[in-house]
Amino acid sequence: MQRPSWDQYFMDITHLVATRSSCLRRHVGALLVKDRNILATGYNGVPTGITHCEKAGCLRERLMVPSGERHELCRGLHAEQNAIIQAAKHGVNIDGATLYCTTMPCIICTKMIINAGIITVIYGEGYADELAREMITEAAIEVIHFTGTNKGKTA
Fold first, then answer.
1. Which of 106, 101, 132, 107 is nearest to 27 (CA)?
2. Among 54, 80, 134, 138, which one carries the catalytic annotation?
3. Band of pLDDT at residue 69, cut at 50, 70 and 90
């Protein structure tokens, strides 16, 4: 059996983390990694102690908000946000880290990624947010679309 590359290994874990998501529309998982060590994980869902959307309902669905728009109209946090918050809560320095995520970050997450000092984003699925792409490029953050065939990069 061939061992997976580090990127494959970490991307596989993002998919496992995403299974904890409480979002009704999309399950997203994220990892913050530095020196091949997992610093924090996050999945999309409501803040701790808040009623999950399966009981409260999805405001975005009720208002027919398209994916990638009006992020503030959601009870939940994104996986990237939760990973950054978990690192901060536990006093973990993520400056210089790599973010692995099942989905390309939105503009809100991108701004947090820039200010958190994350230097690389490796993602699986695309996301319709042109401003996020523009800002992450301007910030000179390395962005890699992981397809499973581009093996070999080391985090």
1. 101
2. 80
3. confident
Q: Which residue has the higher pLDDT, 138 or 153?
A: 138
The residue to which tokens 């978990």 are assigned: 86
- CA 110 from chain centre, in angstroms, equals 10
Per the prediction, the chain carries an average pLDDT of: 92
**Whether the Cβ atoms of residue 146 and residue 7 lie closer than 8 Å to each other:** yes
Nearest alpha-carbon partner for 87 in 18, 31, 153:
31
Q: Give the contacts of 111 (CB within 8 A, at least 6 positions apart).
A: 135
- Through-space distance between the first and last CA atoms of the chain, rounded to whole angstroms: 22
80 flagged as catalytic: yes
Cβ distance 117 to 124 under 8 Å? no
Give the residue from 13, 33, 35, 38 showing the smallest Cα distance to 102: 13
Residue pLDDT, tens place only, 132-152? 999 999 999 999 999 986 654
pLDDT in tens, 5-32: 999 999 999 999 999 999 988 999 999 9
In order of 19, 23, 86, 142, the CA distances from 38 in angstroms are 18, 24, 12, 19
| Structure tokens given for 36 | 């091949």
pTM: 0.91
